[in-house]
Write a structure and sequence with these properties.
- With 147 residues, this protein is an all-alpha fold.
- The chain has a domain of 66 residues.
- It contains two helices and no strands.
- The protein starts with a helix and ends in a 21-residue tail after the last helix.
Length: 147
Amino acid sequence: MKTSVLSILVVGATVAALSFANRSETAGSTALAAPQAGDTKDAKKDAAAMELEALKLKCDALGAELADTKGALEQVVKYLDAQSQHAKAMEAVLDDAEKKGFTFGINPESREVLLKGWREQCAALQRDVPALKPAKKDAPAKPTARN
């Protein structure tokens, strides 16, 4: 009977020791898990900050590209407007040449055709010329009530 009581005590002590060890492991793993969760949050914050910085850089680059494109568009529109103005002036020169007798001579039909072609070209250069929209002015400040 002493052996069975002793066996029960040994088994009881072993179970208690294992249960205590298991609780310590669980507490230790929980203590270790908390910093890991914090590390995960920090890693997510770092990744979000890096992504935000990359998006800011991309936005700045796109803004610079847009400014360059607007500048180029403005130059193209100014060029086309100048072409249109020169075409209008060319029409006056052609009319003057015709009045001074350009179409008379050995082969007057060829000169008439030449003048007609130049006039059509001048008319085409003046048609559908793109224009820039006027720059938006800042909205006037709303008047504030004075006390």
